[in-house]
Amino acid sequence: MERALNAMPAVPLPFDGLFSGTERIFWLYLLTSAAIALVLMLTAGSWPTRARLRAYWLSPDSRLDALYFLVAWGLRTALIVPLVLSVQSVAVWVMHGLNAFYDPPFLAWRYRSIVLAYTVALFLLSDLSRYWLHRLMHRSCWLWPFHRVHHAAEVLTPLLVYRIHPFESLLFALRHAVVAGAVTGVFIFLFGARLDLYTIFGENLFIVALFAFTANLRHSHVRLSYGRWLEHILVSPAQHQIHHDRRYLQSNFGSCLAVWDWMFGTLRLPAQTQGAPDFGIGPRGVRYSSVAALLMEPLRDIKQMLRRI
C-alpha cells in the first residue's frame, strides 16, 4: 500500500541514478546497452576509430549534456519537486470524489489479480499520457520552445535524456502525479487498500521488460531496429532516433509502446526514412550552446510570442 501511494520519492544525489533501477543511467542498463552496441558493431564489421570516439564523447553536445545533467538535478531538487502534486494527494481526492456518489464495492478479486491489473493499468495509462503530452510539446507553439532544448542536440548520448527544460520536467512530473494518483484512487475505491506493483529494480515490471535495457541506445548513434512487425507495437532505438531527425520531428512520440503512434497516425518506421539521419534542429541549434541558453532561450521565445499577441 505504501509503495502504491508513494508519489515523489526522495530526490537522489546526481550519480545515485547509477545504482537505481528507476533511472536510465542505472549501471546494468548502461552495461547491457554497451554490450548490445558491441555485438552490433562486431556483426557489421565496423569499429569506430579513436578519433571518431573522441569526436563523439568530447563533442560540444556531449560536454553540454554532462554539465546540464548536474544543473538539471539542482533545479529539480530546489524548484520542481516542491511544486509537484503527490500521487497520494491525487489518489485521496479521487477516492473522496467517488465516495461522494457511490459506495465502495470492494470487489473480491484475488490479490495477485489486483496487483497484475494495477500494474498493467498504470503502465498503459502512463505510457498513453506520455505519448499525448510529448505530442503536445511538439504541436503547441507555446510548448515547443521548451521541448526544442532537447531536440537541439546533433550528437545523441545517453545523458541527452536529462537535457529537459525545467518547465517541461514540471509538466511531466504533474502528468505522472495525476495519472498515477487517479489510477491508484480508482483501484483503492474498487478493491480497498490491497495495492502493490510488480516491479524489477524498483521500476514497473513492464517498463523494465520493454524499455529499460535498450533505453540508452535511443539517444545514441547505434541503430537498433526491432523489425517492421514488432515496431508497430514497441518503440525501438531506431524509431526514437528517427524522432530526433529534424526531417521527422512530427513522428514517433511513443515512449515504450509504438502502438499509440500506430493508432493515432504518427508512426514512422526505419524503412520509411531516407539517407543518413540529420539530428538536431538545423542552424537554430546554435542558440542552445550553453547551459544558460538552454534555460533562457525558451523564455525569450515565449516573451516574443506574447509581444505579438
TrEMBL record:
Segments passing through the bilayer: 25-45, 66-94, 114-133, 170-191, 197-217
Question: What keywords were assigned to this record?
Answer: Membrane, Transmembrane, Transmembrane helix
Q: Describe the location of the Fatty acid hydroxylase domain by residue ranges.
A: 120-266
InterPro entries listed in its UniProt record: Fatty_acid_hydroxylase (IPR006694), Sterol_Desaturase_Related (IPR050307)
GO MF, one example: iron ion binding
Q: Which GO terms describe its biological process?
A: lipid biosynthetic process
Name the GO cellular-component terms: membrane
Q: Where in the cell is it found?
A: Membrane
Keyword Transmembrane helix attributed: yes
Q: Which Pfam families does this one have?
A: FA_hydroxylase
Taxonomy, superkingdom: Bacteria
Q: What is this protein called?
A: Fatty acid hydroxylase domain-containing protein
Which source organism does the UniProt entry give?
Thioclava indica
